[in-house]
Design a protein that fits this description.
Helix 10 packs across helix 15 (448-467) and helix 10 (360-378) packs antiparallel against helix 17. A five-stranded antiparallel β-sheet has the order 2-3-1-7-8. The protein is an alpha+beta fold and 692 residues long. The chain contains 26 helices and 17 strands.
Length: 692
Amino acid sequence: MIKRDLLLEIGAEEVPAGSMTRVIGELDRMAKAGLDEMRVRYEEIKTTGTPRRIVLYVKDLADRQDDFEKTVKGPPRTQALDANGEYTASALGFAKSRGVGVSDLMLMEVKGVEYLCAVMREAGRATKDLLPEFLSGLIKKLPFQKNMYWADPSVRFTRPVRWITALWDCETIPVRFGDVTGGGRSRGHRFMGSQSVTVPSASEYEAIMEREFVIVDHERRKRMITAGVAELALEIGGTVDDDPDLFEENAQLVEYPVPFRGSFDESFLDIPDEVLIATMKKNQRYFPVRDASGRLMAHFIGVSNNRARDMNVIVDGNERVLRARLYDAAFFWKEDRSRSLESRLPELKKVLYQARLGSIYDKCERVRAMSRWLVDSLGTDDIRETVDRAALLSKADLVTGMVFEFPEAQGVMGREYASLEGEPDAVCAAIYEQYLPRFAGDRLPAGRAGAIIGICDRVDSIIGIHKIGLPPTGSQDPYGLRRAARCINEILWGLEMDADIGGLFGKGAELLGADDETMRNATEFFRQRLHNQLRERGYGHGATSLAAGAMGLSRPLQALRMLKAFDEASGSEWFASLVTSAIRVGNILNKLPAEELKSIKLDEPSLTAAEERDLKSVLDAQSAVVKKSLSSFEWSGVCLALSKLSPVISNFFDGVMVMDSNPAVRSNRLALLIMCGDLFDSIGDFSLIKQG
């Protein structure tokens, strides 16, 4: 079998950088799945791309499909052959449906039963005959968020396709997409390369493109950027932050990366760092530079897609663009300070949060009231004034010029302006930390005041959006409620805040006027998020369900601690035995009518068997321990009590017959099981652990 390399390059106008990484991954997946389905073998698949091209390279692709053979089971012999051994209508119909003659059918035994079977064979076709349709299909199926058309409305792509390079070694493949046909020509770099480049073979493609100032491999471009940026920063004694997303975005914006360093007036360093960084990163994709102490320097590093004869021209142009943006930031920085944050509060009444939930001002007032409730619930009276003041001012910076221009600076500007106005440091920090964590992996609030406000803000959103009937559905979560629930638990666990989230939901529902159905939906949504987060920590589904059900809504922190304690105990023999006993107790009691259970009373003097007396004694002692431990959330105490109960209840089941023929004996033993059931129920549903 001959093997050849395959190249597909889709040349287009500049593809949005944000979509390239996902598209490259999907092209890899679709190509592998397609070739496997076609039964064409290959050694390796590589997908990559630049702003102007999406590339598929398949190494050592077989020149033919594998032959196909499949045995298809038909009707059983009793239906396929009549008494004379002749084929029935059922057999003839089966042969016709499979495209074979009846003479090609055979009998095969499957699990002791003979069936009529057809062996379907198909010789492999030449790969080159399959490639045009296969590659055209890949192009059509590439998943972009938005597509456009430029000539034929039926032909759509994220940007106009200008050329297609399609080679099987040296042989061109006539791939068609719209009015573009694949061939052996490509294009070099838009500014530094040729407008038409001959590619003699697939294996020569990358080397030829590099001579045309196109680094096709996006990972290599990223390495070049990383090294170049670090070198330029080092030259001035600085470093850049490790920002994978920014490096990735720059790699997808250029075909030939040329890092450069620029500077700006040091007076701009008076502006808060977060605003400077946002201006450099978001608008221009620059890398901010820090000195050895971590402070921002009046320098930036950018990545050009053009190696100009005089790079100073590119540096000067970028400095002018950044300077204009920094002047805007400096203007807002000065202008905003002419008014206090508190004076801006009435303006929040004009900013709509959600049409059916009122303004931002209304939301702030609810969050403020919820924050006071949570402070009292946690017993943190020492920060009550801090929380109340910070909650009052928490969203005032939304109506400042700086946040209007730089939305990502919300909270940052509130902190800075509050500090300049002489607010206590704790208040300033809380205004900023209410938004933490902002994304997965972000740091948590350092203080409880900001954490409390942030938790209440998120609970208000969860209840409010459920109230108006717009909860997350599928992949759609426009109000970010999943992230809000996740943040609440991350904060509670990270700061070890034993908050009564169930009570907080109740307070939030009261302030929003939410009905019982809304509360059920909102709390179940939160409980499910908690369950998922606990599962992500590696705990089993059953134990997680037990903890989330028993403690989840009322005490997320205790749900985690309970799960940790039970997880440590799960390797013990007594724990497995206890779970089995708990399930057995539940099964016996669930079979009895509720009225009969209510009528059963323990007659302790009538306990005659040693197993009965031992169980009663241990239940009396350990029930009190469990009750006390649960009230103080001492999970080690709960486990210790259960470990003492486990062997005794096992002995009880082994030594006596619960459903004894003597009604008095049976009643006493059922009474003991009711006591056991009450003890287990006070902790949670142990049957869930058995489910996985």
